[in-house]
Amino acid sequence: MSGGIVRVQRLLSGVGAVSWTLVDDDGMIGPAERFLAHLTAIERSPNTVRAYAHDLRDFFDFLAARGLVWDQIRLEDIGRFVAWLRLPLPARSGLVGVLPSVEATLRASTVNRKLSALSSFYEFHGRHGVELADLLTRWRPGGRSGGSWKPFLAHLGSRDERRRTVSLKTEGRIPRALPDDEVTALLGACETLRDRLLLTLLRSGGLRIGEALGLRHEDLDARRSEVAVVARENANGARAKTWGRQVPVPASLIRLYSDYLHDEYGALDSDYVFVTLGEPRGGRPMDYPIVDRVVRRLRARTGVSFTPHELRHTYATDLLRRGVPVEVVQKLLGHAATSTTVDTYNHLAVEDARRALVAAGVLEEVAS
What we know:
The chain contains 14 helices and 8 strands. With 368 residues, it is mainly alpha-helical. Helix 6 packs antiparallel against helix 7 (193-205), helix 6 crosses helix 10 and helix 12 (326-333) crosses helix 13.
């Protein structure tokens, strides 16, 4: 059991590498520190390590509140942890009652993410003799079918998969694609060419925001109208989530990049494409907090509620609506497998379904 309030602590090594750990009044929490240090050692993203640390903090807070020891709990304690996570923060102490009509604080998907972190934590310690690791996960036949019947030679086509024994049922969340008029409004409201270039790159190239912030000038090939996504360490903490790839982009984006270099970048000395502008600290790599401020300003100026990732979704949805093969979209987005692309974009909006039915002659086109 930990002593006092559990906190997430940022760590910085002598070579500048960032990591995270858990501490309480007695110092570092050993089992969490060993797991998080392992994630850092195998070069998981600092943002990933930080997310694991925050998820484990909730668990160790729960253990402290219940007087439980991390390696001596039972499966039913995990169920109680789930119920505890769903309580409003003031009610977690047990001193405040909660009416049945009060909605859960955390979404089911958020709870499942925390359970996934917990499973990874115990699986790590399970390799060192902690038996609870096998209580949190179980082996099931690979594939989507949960039934007991298996076709002949099925064992040759799938592998057993480790599944969590505890999880909440979630509703699939359809990625939101921004309509053209909202994208136009956002681009028109940008105060700098830098911001306009960033949003255009997300919409026209489908990059993740971390990939865009990590771009160097050498990654843009003006002659071929291509952008190279390269996995590397960046001074601003941005990271490419997957391996590198080449993304074709419109020639108009390259022209916008040239205008940005001529009109705003000027004599700034930096390898990074997206940097802070103006004196006295111009030229520093643009980071996530700066992007957040840009997004909030654009929301206020246009009334469009959006996130940078929704511009990536807009790019992918547009490609699929235009009939681009899913394998090509997968490569452009940098998804590890086609199944990820299919699972993410398996939705059809009502207008998409109507358009397909009209094209098939099942419905007549409705006059606007």
